[in-house]
Amino acid sequence: MNQSSVRQFKVFLNPYYWQTAVLIAKNGLARLYRNSFLGILWTLFQPLTMVLVYATIMPMIMRSPTANYTLYVIVSFPVWGFFSACIIGSSQSILCNGETLKRCIVSASVFPIADVLRHAYTFFVSFTTIYTAAIVLGIAQFDIRILLVPLYFIPILMIIGSAAITIAFIAPYIRDIGELASISMTMLFWMTPIVYQVQMLPPEAQDFMHFNPFFIMIRPIQMLAYGHTVPGLTDTLHLLVLTAIAVILGFSVYRICRRNYVYYL
Amino acid sequence: MFPCGGVDTHARAASLRQWFISRKSIAGVRIPILQDVTFHAKPGDRIAIIGQNGCGKSSLLKVISGNYPIHEGKRHVEGAVVPLIEMGAGFEAEMSGRYNIKLSYAYRGKLQAYSKAIEQTIIDFSELNEKIDLPLKTYSSGMVARLAFSSAIFQDPDILLLDEIFATGDAGYIEKSQEVLRKKVTNVSIAIMVNHAPNEFTDLCNRFILMNKGRIINEGSRKEILSHYYKDILHISDQNIVAA
């Protein structure tokens, strides 16, 4: 890392950078729900609807039934919703704030980061509420290991944050990336064990899953909240290696693209 | 020397399509903004940059402030820069005036300077009083301009950049704002202001620069620069210059 890279990396360690990101995230949340009757409660309805639809239909068409399938989708859907919203939304994070970025001195990376924080907040609200409701309704049992979810969510947040920065900074140069991200996420939804379990796949497909970053991220959450087991060393290592790769990739793209992006807005 | 240029994104998209289909060059979509510009300022300088709309004055300020990167040459700035360029950028219509004060500090990368005390000073100066907690969309354009001006002006930079900044509102507010702005320009280490016509603040300047078509074409006394600007660029006759 040369001096310039260190200086650029230090931006992310500045507490005011994070305060700005939180302020913009709050602003985004307020803008979304300020004038709606149900407000933040809307964040529950989308995952809840998906859970209801899949929990009703999928057991009918699956060859081998999954034990407590409703809980499986209760755990998987909000996490996938978070991934999907962050990845697809990040393509617009910088483009939508172009006029502000042309006139103000603020790091452009703060906008995708703020969007990720906003989606993380709505994820925690919806996940906690739906999971608590599942415990009350007897669908899930409280297990102490569920409290490890926030710990495993930290590397996930770093991976998704890095991916969001990568996509947001490429978007001014290649406007099609938003559509590409949207199509990719639709494909990846079916390529990741969200509505089916990885054990249902043929062995060779299961091996392939270890190269699917979304599987690497969602697996620890599924293990803690559905399987009530602590992820093993291998799963944790996979997650940490993926975090390192994502952060390096994200920072590299940021370094290359940050210089001239403003002219492409 | 810092040439800087924008990009025609529509032409570029067409060029990318051409490149994919027929492998034609994707070059030639860059729009030159600044060319062959050599500019320096030292403490005590009060610089007025004059030129027509689109001549590159604002872009030069944005290069100095760091908004626009340069493709060639060097940019070296020492000290805290406060650009007052198109104030009110990033304001959120749905949010309160109070919230927008904080947001404007965040967007200028000055959140560390924000405090409840400075917030109150801004509210008092803008004379918005109890309306400060109403959503910005309920403000009149004059109220928004007052909030934008007040949010921007209470900062202590080493280098102050002013892009055709004028206070708006009623006569009392304009007088008060101009007084504050005049003090800022006088007390700051370096002030650089751009205008397409001289105004009351250019009287405070000790350096005058004329820009045209992205280049600095002359530097000299106020009289010399304005004469060059009016005669050779705006093609205004001597009689009309007196009126202007």
Plain-language structure description:
The complex is a heterodimer of chains A (265) and B (244). The longest helix of chain A is centred in the middle third of the chain and has 27 residues, at 110-136. Chain A is an all-alpha fold and 265 residues long. Chain A has helices at 3-10, 15-33, 42-61, 69-93, 98-103, 110-136, 149-170, 177-191, 203-209, 213-225, 233-257. In chain A, helix 2 (15-33) packs across helix 6, helix 3 packs across helix 4 (69-93) and helix 4 crosses helix 10. The radius of gyration of chain A is 19 Å and the shape is globular. Chain A is 71% helix and 0% strand. Chain A has one domain. Chain B is of the alpha/beta class and 244 residues long. Chain B folds into two domains: 42-80 and 156-244, 3-Layer(aba) Sandwich (Rossmann fold); 89-155. Chain B has helices spanning 9-22, 57-65, 97-107, 116-126, 141-153, 171-187, 222-233, 238-243, and strands spanning 4-7, 30-34, 46-50, 81-84, 159-163, 190-195, 207-212, 215-220. In chain B, the strands form two sheets. Chain B has a six-stranded mixed sheet with strand order 4-5-6-3-7-8, sandwiched between helices. Chain B has a two-stranded antiparallel sheet with strand order 1-2. In chain B, helix 6 links the parallel strand 5 and strand 6. The longest helix of chain B is centred in the last third of the chain and has 17 residues, at 171-187. The two termini of chain B are 33 Å apart. The model of chain B has no long low-confidence stretch (mean pLDDT 82). Chains A and B meet through helix 2 and helix 5 of A and strand 1, helix 1 and helix 3 of B.
